[in-house]
Every structure is written in C-alpha cells, then in structure tokens.
Protein 1
Amino acid sequence: MRSTSSKNRTGRAARAAAAVLAGALALSLTACGGDGDDDGDEQGGSGNEETAGAVTLPKLNGESLEVAAVWSGAEQENFKKVLAEFEKRTGAKVTFVPAQDPIINFLGSKVAGGQPPDIAMLPQPGAIKQAVDKKWAKPLGADAIKELQENYSQGWQDIGKVDNKQYGVYYKAANKSLIWYNAKVFENAGASEPKTWDELLSTAQTVYDSGVTPFSVGGAEGWTLTDWFENIYLSQAGPEKYDQLAKHEIKWTDPSVKDALTALAQVWGKKDYVAGGATGALQTDFPASVTQTFTGGDQPKAGMVYEGDFAQVNIVQAKAKVGTDAKVFPFPAVGDTAPVVSGGDAAVILQDSKAAQALATWLASPDAATIQAKLGGYLSPNKNVDNSAYPNEVQQKIAKALIDSGDDFRFDMSDQAPQAFGGTPGKGEWKALQDFLKNPTDIAGTQRKLEADAAAAYGN
C-alpha cells in the first residue's frame, strides 16, 4: 500500500508533538458532554452555487457518485451523514461502497471491471502512490487545492502528494499513541497512569495483582500489532532511525529492531498479561479488544487496551463513558521521548468529473469534518475545525494536540511500506508480528522473516 518513494514524510523531531500531547492528556480527562447534533445548516447562495461558510459547492442535480472505503459500523454510518449533507447542498446522489482490505486490491477489481468508484478513501500514503503509478488516481483541481491550503498544515498536504502533485485530501487522521484503561480497574488496583515504559510494566503488574489481566490485544488484525511495534520503535530508536526503517534504508535485522522486539516481548511474552493469552489475542479483532476492556463492570477481561483515538467508537458501543469509565494516557516513553505516531485516510479521485472534484473540495472543508467530529470517534487534521465540535474533553485534547503539533509527527510506518509488506492480512509485517505474538522468544527469527519479506516487497 505504500512505496519506497513516500518522500513527502512529515515531522522532523516528534519531540514537540510528544510534549504537546503529554501535556494535554496529563490534564483532567473528564468527559464534558455527549454527542453534538450532526446536521449542518444549509446557507443560502445565489445562481447555480451554494455557499456554506468558506466552502462553495456547485449545483449537481442529477449527478451520481460512489465513494469506497474500508469502514464499517458507526464509522461508516457517521461518514454517510457527511455525504448526506453534501447531497443536501448540491443535489447530487452519493452512494457509499463498502470495500475490502487491502483496498488497492478491491479497487483493482473494480477498475478491471470498468466500474471504479468516483472517490476512494485510501489509508496509506503508499496506496496513493500506487494508485497514481497505475494511472487510476486523478489530480485534485484548483478548488480542492485551495481548500486544502486554507485548512491544512503543509505536512498534511504533502503526504497527499505524489511527485509534488496533489492527489489526496486527508479527511481523517488518527493519534495512534494512546492507551485506554478501565478507570474502575485502576481505582480498585490503586494503579496510576504511567509515563515511562518501566512504569507501564509496573502498572501492569499492579493490575494483574488485583485480579484483572492487564492488556487486551486485538491480534486477529495484524495492523494493531504493527502499531504497538511502531510506538516502541519511534520512542526507543528515535525519529531518524524510524524514517530509515520506514524506507528500508536499514534492515529489519538491525539491532534497533531487536531492542524494540525485546521490549514488546515484555508485554506479549509475560504469562497472563494478555487477555486469552496469545491464542485468545489472535482470535480477537480490534473492536472486541476494546469492548472487552470496558464490559464486565470492574472485572472485565482486561484493564487496558492500546490503540488510537478512534477506539472511542467501540468504547461507546460498550456503553462506557469516555472520560469517566474509560480514560486514556499517552503511550509511555520507551526511550528519551514519548512517541507520536499518526495515521489517516485520504480521499482520492478515481473518476475525474465536476461532481467528484466538488466532493473532494467538500471533504477538505471544515464544514464536512465538523459534522463527523460532533459524532465522536473521529479526528480531523483540518486546523479550522473548531475544537469545541468534538463531543468530550478527552477528544478535544487529543484533537488539539494533533493540530498543535503542526508537522512534528511521524506517519504510521507500515502505512508507508509497500502493500505486500505493511498492509496485507496474512502476509509480511502483519503475519510476522502475529507469529511473534504467538512466540515472543523468537526475536532473531522474527527479524529474519521481517527482513526477507521487506526485501522482497521493497525490491532491495
């Protein structure tokens, strides 16, 4: 899904973002209210156009569009409300097309059949590059670029570029450096929020001693395991090494990878630290890994679960309140600095038309992002989304930390890799780390397997 020429990597230090995030989340994390309403008021225009705030959209009566994304459940339903507002403002009809992962393969079959969607939401910079190389992707027009330039930092614009031409609108972002915990479990155990890796291990032991398994891991989906590794590696090895490994400029047999896997094994390899053990974790998908942490009262299957801000959707599904039942702390510092790893999904045009360009322009606007922000479980890199749009104080602080970090972040490493290595179920990094979860003692073997798969995928 990525390629070795993901050359527009943003973030130069990660330290500034880490400091902002740590400071923001160290404050009180009490929820301050429920969901906002999700409707956007239509503002009057004139002639054949309708203007809403800063975004101007054409009349598209009778036009039909398809948008494909690998989104399901509440995430899909909330995005459909954003599309519904676009329909209301333009008169177009937009159909959401559920895609399978990896989406590039799904799109390939659609293109081969002569029926590509008008826009695809691509979750990796490398997927954008691949779509461009295959001549599927179409450049953004002047209106969409104008909206991007007004609303996005240079770094978020750049990761949607290929050969310095703008193809992607990063509609959705993720802060992937968070650990959520069951507040009642921590209270009963007398556990406190850790700031370092050693403190995290100590906290885990405290939770374990109280009678609750410390961690829930969604190992059935390999991407969650790559996120664990990336946070440890970024903090421990530092930003420069992170960038080198992301581009395969150093090998996965490098000692820095050994160090990161050794740290990871302190959680995955500790008897009874993972809910269900390795076998149970490998049968647990991401949504279940979250919900099982926040169901069962003060005796859930686990006390903590690692993942990004988007876990809030699943926390709500577990009927837990963010900020009271479910609290969060930044991924602890394994090295000198706490990590800040981000991800995201970009809207890319596959069928160029006035309607597709208008939809891309809409998705680059604060109007669109604000609708989904109010619904929760969503984070926008759009700096002109009012922070108060997010439905609770926890998410407001996470969103503020992302925006305040500017360009000082690192994008998900596996999302920068070729699809065969970093983004395919049952293959490459996903499979190697699933095998490592099963046998965390085999560090050298895991490194060899990662390097062999990476060399084949990167072609070097």
Note: The radius of gyration is 21 Å.
Protein 2
Amino acid sequence: MNIRFDGQRALVTGAGKGIGREIALLLSQLGAYVVAVSRSREDLETLAHEIHGEVIAAELGDVQQAQNAARQAGKINLLVNNAGISIPQSFLKTTVEDFDATMAVNVRATMVISQIIAQGMIQRGYGGAIVNISSQSSHLAVAEHTAYCASKGALDQLTRVMALELGPFQIRVNAVNPTITQTPMGMMAWSDPAKSGPMKARIPLGRFAKPLDVAHAVAYLLSSDADMIHGITLPIDGGFQTH
C-alpha cells in the first residue's frame, strides 16, 4: 500500500493541537491540500507554515461559525471531524452549561459541518470519505467525564446514521476510538499517576496512544485502500478491550 491524497482537499477540524494537528500534517505530507480549522489563531499561524493548504479560525461550538467554516473550506473530498473539548466533572457536579458546551463542540459541530460538506460531495457526484474522532469513552464509563462520555457515545451513533444514509452516495463514514492520547487535553485530564496508572495497567501494550497512532489510522480510513470499510468505530487502544 502506498497511500497518497494528491489532488484532494481535506478539511480537518480542531487542527491546532494534538491529534488534529498531527492529522493535518500527515495528510499534507501525503499530498492533500489541507484546510485546517481551529479556534486558536496562534496555533493556526504556526501550522500554516507546516502544511500545504490554508487555515480558518472558528469557534465550532457556535453554529454560525461552524457553518461558515464549512462553506469557506470549499470543495472537500476528505473530512476529519476532530474538534473536541473535555471538561472533567463528576455526574453530580456536571453543570448544564458545561454539558451543553461539550455536546455543541463534540457532536453538534460534527453534524453541522458534515451536512454542508456531504451536500457538496453529493452535488459533485464523486463521493468522499469522512472520519469522526471519537473515543473509547463512547462505550466505557469514565469517572469525572460525564459530558465527555455522553458526547462520544452520541458521536458513535451519529457516525452510524451518517454511514447508513450517505453510503448510497459513495460517501464513506467511519470513526476512530482512541484510548487516552498524549495530547495537552489528554494529559491535563490524566496527569495524576494515581488516576492514569490503573488505566494504563489495563492496556496490554502498556502505554497510552500517541497522536501519530491516531493519524495513521485516519489516513488509512480516508484512503482508497479502505474502500469497503464503512460505518465502523475503530478502537485505537493498545488492546484495552481484550480485558
């Protein structure tokens, strides 16, 4: 296999840091023209020098900004819905405001952006590929992550419905579900060894994921090598689910 995306336009949300940045860099290295979206202008300024493409600053928790970013991105062949937030809170202390904010970015933005991008793919008649960045938290209850777990569970179901309805247009939709990943957000939530130790001990490979581990899986699912892979939620968990 020799994955290349020459001549294709890829939209990556949440591309400023962590997994999203790694995905944007990898897709650019593989020949794609990358449209990178982030709420951080500082992150985008540095990323712009490292990719072949363009950058868009947007707060995707705002519906209008999410729609504008999707339209501004132009004719997209490959979409990666990576943008996400985590506000660690126990169930009893989760606020309505933080729950709504999490769902707005982690689920609603994916729907809003995918609707616009998929409509463009359908109009052009060439199909396309979409990958949503979910989490093992979509099916594993994690203490202090009420809103995050709920949002990723919803994202998995959204992925399946998208796959069901967009498949006839030759638009493939999949999700990847990483374990804890060594990003600024991941390390913030899992910096305490007393908390991270037991989780890592349940991973047969004995480590958390690196952003590049996720980026490699995303590139494969976007590529023509994965032409018959559709509607899946792919664990990237070092064997966590073998327990």
Note: The domain at 9-236 is CATH 3.40.50.720 (Rossmann fold).
Protein 3
Amino acid sequence: MSKTDKNEIKLIRIQIGCIIKYERLSKGLSQEELSVRIDTTSTTIGRIERAEHSCNWEILILICNQLNIEIERLFSLKSNKELQLIISNTIDLEKKLTKEKNNYYNSLKKRIEKEFALL
C-alpha cells in the first residue's frame, strides 16, 4: 500500500466521522440516542465520529439507515473544501460549543489540510 493510499484511507475515515456527526446533529439526535437505535454504545459512536475507531460495515449500514445517509456518500472522498464545509456546518449545529470542542474542530481542520497536502 502506498503512502498516498494510507493518507486517502485516513481522510475517508475522517470524512465518515464528519458526515455521521453532521447528519446526527441535523436530526437532533445525541450519540446516546443513535447508539440505542442501533444497539451499540455512545462511546462507539463518538469514536467513529472522531475517526478514532475503524468500525465494521454492519455498524456503518445501521448508522446510515438510521440517519438516511447513502452509504456511498461516506466512501467517495470529498475535496478539502467540501470537508471543511461539513465541519463548519457541524459547528453551526452544536448546541454547546465549548472551548474544548472548538479546539477539537480547529485541530480537525488542520489535520484534514495536512492529510490532503500529503496526497
């Protein structure tokens, strides 16, 4: 596997988390509410959203079904600009944007920039 492939996989993992979080928040669901609907834990949902956890395809399908996401949308790599927009829109949906969350989003944006630069 080339370095480019590894970077693309990292970006897709980040993208999956960003899309899921955006869609979850846009539907007014907490991680806990989503986890109950698909019979998993809120910790698992959080790890997927933060791209800390590679989940299996079964969980992704269940999440996509609950949030009405076409699964293909998760795996077709968006541009840097599109991912940054998803993050900005997610920030707008946050009910409580703590300093910690703001720092997380800023570091996520930088991480995406870095990964795209390595492609």
Note: The chain has one domain: 3-114.
